[in-house]
Fold these 2 entries.
Entry 1:
Amino acid sequence: MKKRVVTLLLVAAMTGSMVVGCGSNSSSDTKSETKTESTDTKTEEKKELADDEYQYVSAEDTAKADGVHVLDVREWDNYVTGRVKNSEWCPIFPLEDDSLVDAMTDYAKENLNDGKDIYIICNSGKRGAEKATGVLRDAGIESTSIYTVEGGAKALADVSGALTTDRTEENIDWQYVSGKDAVAAVDDKDVQILDVRDDDTYKAGHLKGSFQCGLKEIESADAQTAMYKLATEKMDSSKKVYLLCYSGNKCAKTGISILKDAGFDLDNLYIIENGAKDGDVSAAFVTE
């Protein structure tokens, strides 16, 4: 796999050059780039990087990467329209929002400090990735493990199949709860039941007290966004969630993937086995 290391040297004198960044048209600082290309091998020792050095990986290699963290730092509205399979979402945009730095720092310490390489996706592979790299370094992540996806999401969009809205094939250890246990949890204040069937089906019969957000169109960015807003605005990320769909498969899996992005712990997320087809579940349906 071919990766690049780029050193950015600040130039004191102003020139007419403009540097294009993620989510920005230009920057008043002029930078000259000294590029050194190198080919990494598994046995090659990684060298420490200076603060103004960044490593790059191609969009093509990112699309087929395995055993790495693919960290998407774009805003939700960009991320939800097309993401790399199994990517992790931790936004750094808007860049002026300091609370996102704190959230990324916490996320890095809890999830990324395992020695695996990290591939950062921003809009175009510039300012967002550079800021995220700095945050990760400050959080204690080895600088030699951090790579910017060259060209960002714009480059990935040109790679066939690199970006997807399908969340059903994620590397998630799906957990299940029986219909009987789900029905028993209807009045449990520590369990939230989330029905992801369409509106009309939900109205015809559902478990009492359940939240509802239709995910029948599992690849719809609008449907996924509605689910994300419900999760962040009305649900409690500290409590267990039992997801009910038509048969306990794709809609529920999509919901779990979105809840993960919304900050819910995967250990607290369960699919109700067989969904609405389960006899105990359908017998407990109400229409109020």
Note: The two ends are 58 Å apart (CA to CA).
Entry 2:
Amino acid sequence: MGCVNVKKQTKLRMKVTPSSTVVTDNSRRSSYELPSPSPSDYEPLSFLGAGGFAEVTACKHIRTKSIKAQKKIPKSKLKPYHLHQSKKPKEVHILESLDHPNIVSFFEYFEDRENYYLITEICKGNSLYSNLIKSGKFSEKKVKESMFQVLQAVEYLHDKKIVHRDIKPENVLLTSSNGSHVKLSDFGSADEIGVNKKLFGGFGSVFYLAPEVIIGEYNEKVDIWSCGVMMWVLLTGKQPYIEKDAKTIKERIVQRPLQPCQIELGGLSCDGLDFMKKMLEVDSEKRISATEALEHKWFEDCRKKYE
């Protein structure tokens, strides 16, 4: 979940066992800093959300008084594929390597006998999903601004041979309640992919899965498909499939995957419709890349604003 939305909730008390191991991103720490932080340096404030088997709380760094997000991951829930060869969570390994204005900032992590704790920045504007619930659906202009920023993050990830595998409105967060700056979060399903290599396994939320994820092997283009589904959801305010359980949704994705229709997307410009069709191309080899997506005519005004 990473950088998460902030809601006023009841204060929590978090128990951390005394024998904790602290691990930090040494590249971001200088030699004159204070000793390495410990769990006691953070005061838990409020529950922010949960997803999968992790939960996230807002916390205060006692020395600096800064507010952060703390993601707690039970070690008992992790499978071997969740861990990097260095034995730390793969999510940590990936987050340590990232530095992009549209990706949540990672600060450090530590562990105790039972859990890993990841410290990231906190976003006060809630997720796109939370905002979608309030508004019903987004205007084409708002969707365009959000999609352009998300795809800038995706291009950066793909250039680094990283696949997110769980792009959805819940994982795209606004940095402020009255702004339009968004950040991609939650790298719990992310993985690295080698040159000319493929990934396997069904990761991410079922509504946003690309057909090839269900069929077998796949590459970074699954993130583009997820972006296409997310664009459709933001514009319509609806779920992409009427089926309810995971099994039948997967069957539907393989047999009759989501395809944009002008009737359902009433009011969407011709350029916007063309763009969505290119992201929701069933054949992943023909599907648009993140770099090609950012060069699409639909984003002409966004390129002037953000670049």
Note: Residues 4-22, 24-32 have pLDDT under 50 and may be disordered.
